[in-house]
Amino acid sequence: MAGRFSHLEFSPEDERRHQPRSEGVAKASAEQYLQSADEAHRWGDFELALRLHTRCLKENRAMIPAWVGQVQMLVQLAEYHEARLWADKALELFRNNGELMAAKAQACARGSDFRAAYACNDAAMAAPGSSPWRWQVRGEILLARKEPRHVDCFEKSLIEPSADWFDRIVIARICLFYHQATAALRWTQQAVELKPEHAYNWFMLGQCQRELGWSAPAMQSYKRCLELRADFRPARMALLSAEHDSSWSMFWRRVRRRLRGGRTG
Questions:
Q1: For labelling, which of 10, 112, 201, 260 has a CA lying 20 to 30 Å from the CA of 191?
Q2: Are 80 and 113 in contact (CB under 8 A)?
Q3: How many other C-beta atoms are found inside a 10 Å radius of the C-beta of residue 100?
Q4: CA–CA separation, 122 and 101 (whole Å)
């Protein structure tokens, strides 16, 4: 498998670079890699999360959440074809697993293969167990098809026992992908209310606000993010970009006022 799959193997240098920092442990366990991958995902670092999921599977191929995470991260990186291939590879080992079927369904939806997306998600919903993820993918497929029932699916995902603040961010990312910034803002605001001390929530709030054209509130959200985590580079870059856009916007407003004044005179 070409493309991004070529990056799913680690060189010795990669292994050292992405080794989780554990308490005096020379070699991280599969569980530690999985935990680190989840943390990277929650900070929007999809490349790092992808590599850590891969490293987890090198330690233990039976870790189904890492297989699911591989597919999810490939989708976030817009590698939809490879995400489907990776899902199929995992499903050969864990046939009809509900979480994997949902991950494949999302990859199919992002690739506009909605017949396959519906089929995979139906299989996921029929499989034993339940999870926020399965309902979120169901909601995404309906949103992609402009079905109003998608909101019900997102809300059902949040009453699952394992749901937490981050599930609001997952939903917000889905909404942003489909250019539903107002909906994304609402879900992100809920995440901020539930976990105001997590800097990434404020970054996401800024992203939603900026998508809506609200430059000043977006800059305030980025600044709040940086107050909580000063080294978060995406927020720093977003703030600089927003400030640049705001400066140009102010400049052109002044130019237009002068031009109008000149025509009046």
A1: 112
A2: no
A3: 28
A4: 9
Contact assessment for residue 209 and residue 217, using Cβ atoms and an 8 Å cutoff: yes
How many other CB atoms are found less than 10 A from the CB of residue 155?
Answer: 12
Query: What tokens were used for 195?
Result: 């976990």
DSSP string, 6-45: GGSS--HHHHHHT----SS-SS--HHHHHHHHHHHHHTT-
Looking up residue 112, the CATH number of its domain turns out to be 1.25.40.10
Any domain includes 127: yes
Residue 85 and residue 107 in contact, taking contact as beta carbons nearer than 8 Å: no
How many distinct structural domains can be found in the chain? Answer: 1
Which pair of tokens denotes residue 256? 């237009």
Token reading at 16: 């050292």
11-49 per-position pLDDT tens digit? 344 444 445 554 444 578 999 999 999 999 999 999 999
80 within some domain: yes
**Domain annotation covers residue 216:** no
- For residues 216 and 138, what is the distance between their CA atoms, to the nearest angstrom? 35
Domain ranges, residue 65: 3-163
Query: Which region among 106-110, 114-118, 213-217 has the lowest average model confidence (pLDDT)?
Result: 213-217
Note whether residue 250 is domain-resident.
no
Burial category of 239 from C-beta neighbours within 10 Å (exposed 0-12, middle 13-18, buried 19 and up): buried
